[in-house]
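call fold target=ATP synthase subunit delta
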Amino acid sequence: MKTAKTNKTAYCSMAAIRYARVLFDMELPEDVIGGTEEIFSEAPALVSVLESPIVTKDQKHKVIDRIFDERIRNFLKVATDYGKAGIMQEIFRAYHQYKNEMAGIVTAHLAYVVPPTEEQKKGMEQFVRREFHAKGVVWEMEERPSLIGGFLLLVNGREYDYSMQGRLKRLEQKLTWR
């Protein structure tokens, strides 16, 4: 059971998904991908340079050659040539999601008012594994006081709403539909 940092923008564009699948198919070592991802997250000015219309294609390629591992350079050059340097973080996020999907691991987003106990979390993990035929679960945890109580579980587009806010909304709908 892994717990991931909460990521408000968990959805990825189709372009990011396509590039992520190509990156996955390249079968690069994790240290190369992780190192590249780290460089992009720590150097936002790099993205500005690679996106700039003023910087020539050859200059961008030279920057990539100087900074990145040779095994990922061609991928970055193609992505930059097609104007995708600005979505590199999104591409890496889609890569990790796709990699987990291929390994049979699902991502479950849990919004709560009070953090669940380990026992509750294990019970939810068993439910998710059984329901989605998953080998593992990666958790994204988010504290959300607006739920009033209970929790909201999102997995593969399915929503399981056991929050007080959700129950009140359902009760309101029942009362207004009569």
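return ok
DSSP finds eight helices and five strands in the chain. The two ends are 45 Å apart (CA to CA).
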